[in-house]
Amino acid sequence: MHLRASHWGGMAVLPRRASKSGLGRLSGRLAALPVHCMGLVCCIGLLCCAGCSSKKGPKVDLMPVAGTVTLDGNALADADIAFYLQGDRPQGYAGSGGKTDAQGKYELTTGAAKGAAAGSYKVTISRYRDANGGPVVIAEGMDLEQLKMQGQAKETLPPQYSDMEKTELKATVEKGKADGYDFPLKSS
Question: Computed from CA positions of residues 73, 74, 75, 79, in that sequence, does the dihedral angle turn out positive or negative?
Fold first, then answer.
């Protein structure tokens, strides 16, 4: 049903529907409110709903996780690293990720918080490059999958590191161990 509001003398007038539950009478009363009051009623309702459903991310104790990624002994810059928790997961937590800097160093984050939950992880490391060998720049309205299909993004690391199904990389995040999660990769 499509409802259309009309304005008459500063009042919002909505068509009434008959209702066995009495909601028809309530909507009729709300419809007779001045237009500026209708906006206030809607804002208050939205704020109440937003307050009830606010989520601040998973409630997980995070351990600091940092390390270095190298390829054939050289720092691997601009690579994405992802830790996927294996086994039982805390509610709302699937894993953590990071990006290597020019020295191949990374630090994991979970949402906006630094660290990862303690446990055993499957790890992927990937680095996509454009047709000229430079970092992939994703323009608005595009995503990595579209760029890969168009040949504008190519994975430069072997599947045993970059593919979730084929990765050989694993890590165990332990309480008290913040650094030393290093990954020395080989190109062949």
Answer: negative
For residues 163 and 93, membership in a common domain is answered with yes
Euclidean distance between CA atoms 142 and 157, whole angstroms: 22
Alpha-carbon span 137 to 131, nearest angstrom: 11
Distance from C-alpha of 59 to C-alpha of 89, rounded to nearest angstrom: 11
Within-domain flag for 165: yes
86 and 46 within one domain: no
Cβ neighbours, 10 Å, residue 18: 6
Cα–Cα distance measured from residue 76 to residue 127, given in angstroms and rounded to the nearest whole number: 9
Q: Are 99 and 122 in the same domain?
A: yes
* Range of the structural domain that residue 11 is part of: 6-52
Judgement on whether residues 109 and 161 belong to the same structural domain of the protein:
yes
Contacts of 178 (CB under 8 A, 6+ apart): 63, 64, 65, 66
Q: How many domains does the chain have?
A: 2
pLDDT in tens, the chain (188 residues): 444 343 334 444 444 444 444 444 444 544 444 444 444 344 344 334 444 444 455 578 899 999 999 999 999 999 999 999 998 888 888 789 999 999 999 999 998 899 999 999 999 999 999 888 888 888 888 888 888 888 888 999 999 999 999 999 999 999 989 889 999 999 87
pTM, two decimal places: 0.66
